[in-house]
Design a protein that fits this description.
This protein is 22% helix and 26% strand. The protein is α+β, with helices and mostly antiparallel strands. The strands form two sheets. It has a four-stranded mixed beta sheet. Strand 5 and strand 6 form a beta hairpin. The protein has two helices and six strands, in the order E-E-H-E-H-E-E-E. It has one domain. The structure holds zinc ion.
Length: 108
C-alpha cells in the first residue's frame, strides 16, 4: 500500500538586499515588508501564489527548503506539472537537488 505524504504547514522567512543583515525577521523591511509568512490551507497553491506576487525589484527568487530533496520539492513539482509549467530539474538519484521554473529556483 502506497503512502501519500500531505503537507500541513508552510512557514516562510524571507530576505532581500535591504534586510539580509537584519536578524529579527519580525521587523518589516522597507522593500519586502512582512518577512515571515505561514500557510495552513492549500499550502502549495498559497506558497506559489506568494512567490509569484509582483516584485519589480527581483529578477530571481531563490527558495531554500530544509527537506527539499526528499519531500518538499515533490509537492511543488506536482503542482508545476498540473499548471503546465516546465521545470528544469537537477537530480541526484531519485532526489531533486534543484528545480528552476519561471523566475523561481528551489533548492535544498
Ligand atoms: Zn527585505
Amino acid at each position: 500500500m502506497a503512502t501519500l505524504h500531505v503537507p500541513n504547514l508552510v512557514c516562510v522567512q524571507q530576505f532581500c538586499s535591504f534586510c539580509e543583515d537584519v536578524e529579527d525577521a519580525r521587523r518589516k523591511c522597507v522593500q519586502c515588508r512582512e518577512r515571515k509568512h505561514s500557510y495552513w490551507d492549500d499550502l502549495v497553491g498559497s506558497i506559489l501564489s506568494y512567490l509569484c506576487e509582483p516584485r519589480p525589484w527581483v529578477k530571481v527568487i531563490v527558495a531554500i527548503a530544509h527537506n527539499a530533496k526528499s519531500f518538499d520539492l515533490q509537492f511543488i513539482l506536482n503542482r508545476a506539472v498540473l499548471l503546465k509549467w516546465q521545470p528544469e530539474l537537477i537530480m541526484k538519484g531519485m532526489n531533486i537537488m534543484c528545480m528552476k521554473m519561471e523566475h523561481l529556483v528551489f533548492s535544498r
